[in-house]
Amino acid sequence: MACLKLLSVGTKIVAVGRNYAAHAKELGNAVPKEPVLFMKPTSSYLEVGGTIEIPHPLESLHHEVELAVVIGKKARDVPEAFAMDYVAGYALALDMTAREIQASAKAAGLPWTVAKGQDTFTPISSVLPKEAVPDPDNLELWLKVDGEIRQKGSTQDMMFKIPFLISHISSIMTLLEGDVILTGTPPGVGPVKAGQKITAGITNLLEVYFNVAKRQKPQSS
Fold first, then answer.
1. CB–CB of 116/38 below 8 Å?
2. Which residue of 34, 35, 92, 97 could cross-link 125, Cys pair, CB 3.0 to 4.6 Å?
3. Residues of 175-207 as b/e, b for ≥16 C-beta within 10 angstroms?
């Protein structure tokens, strides 16, 4: 399937938390012994140039820049040695996070869905075909807010590499064509507020931009 259509047919976003040791430490989390997984709905996607919406009553969201792996065919119980055969391509994504909501949920032992799954909370680039990314384990990811660098890191610092993630996740749930794995974020996460602009990229491959605004309250009927 053409890379342009892949995201529209995907059924889910499987996100990997704490996959960069430095990010785990900056949030005071232990470095995990196996991948920390959570789900995001595909309704949270936002195309390049769109506006990230901060829900009421929050004043900010945290940005987390990530390499997205796009699955190309049905994958179940995939051996690590063959995992890359199931990759159709890659994208750059942001895992926008309502940190206050997440912190409350973590303290209460509750899921992160509300903090991570709201509309516009997964801004994402177009999909680069696999052939355009010969070495996904050595990509520089970066993010700027209003032109100021906030995050810069390399996928070589991922604790759990892409083949392992595909194998591990596919042993738990079937991955389908167009599904996305968000592979975690390097350190430097922080708040972004209404009126600011995010630019982010994979060095020498692509660049994206998004605006940030407060979500308008729906009119009461």
1. yes
2. 92
3. bbbbbbbbbbbbbbbebbebebebebbbeeebe
